[in-house]
């Protein structure tokens, strides 16, 4: 099971270089399992015990499995994660021609670590909006092949590099695409039109706009002397999206389950398709009975907010509280913050810990050092939006927000096991 899950995650990461592709990948897997797509612009012919999914902005997705048990009796079991990761996004007018090189101007999306982006074989993917035959359409593209690089400056020309190097995002991050003898040949929209034709056999009259991200073409892999680790891009937080999907698809038909994977978490979640927007509430209100039944159902429900946790790094152990250093391959982490950066309380933490013990899954706790700031995720946002009880958890990782992150190769199976048990649980606290 562990090897199969790890390979499934690797395949999912490869197919999901952007939130748009991740949402499409999740939708494809849901449809293969019998889930039906609902369009928000249409009336929803929802049937008892049905299986459905809804997307918004092509970058967020909610999957719903209506169980046999009445909702007013059993409530909902929700798992939340996010589809976006820090990256470099192409600017609207990106063409730069300097010293005979064609470069693209980029904007940093989210809290990215800059240095790991240097000297990587980069490709480009995302959504393109174009005009054809007088109509405005959109399509996803993925160049797949390495087509850009951000070369480091040689140590001979930057002698202080190893003593600390403040990278300027405006000047030092534009990737190089090509050498050009004629600067007028640097036409990015023409490049996108060619890709649309190659990938989709589409003839675009004009490229109107786009949301495109650079990504590392190196595949994720199970690595280490004893194959102890998974290394790859976008583990934060596609790992949790994949684990939630596998758990939902493997769960029984008795209880009602929801998987919520939303965009824009890395920039605050405040958007029409983000966790701080109305997407989840609107979907639930269309699916649940009217009147006070919605509140009654939500008060019988529980959300597991799954987002990666900081594992204790052997070279930087002092960055953790001595009693709260989560280890890789030692199970999921319950994340706690008394200033409500995480939505966990003693009741929800106790229930998740109980699930782990019942299913022989190791479990850990994380509290940040008292003299350091604490990150947050969709847990407190969703809890405050819906009033649903929430526990924030995640798998421990290294190098969070790097272009290549590291997790334990045993932990994905642990997370899928406990999330499946959660979806199947007959009693919530």
TrEMBL record:
Cofactor(s) listed: Zn(2+)
One GO biological process term: proteolysis
Main EC class the enzyme belongs to: hydrolase
GO MF, one example: aminopeptidase activity
Recorded GO CC terms: cytoplasm
Transmembrane spans: none
SUPFAM superfamilies for the chain: Aminopeptidase/glucanase lid domain, Zn-dependent exopeptidases
Record HAMAP family: Aminopeptidase_M18_2 (MF_00467)
Family: Belongs to the peptidase M18 family.
Protein name per the record: Probable M18 family aminopeptidase 2
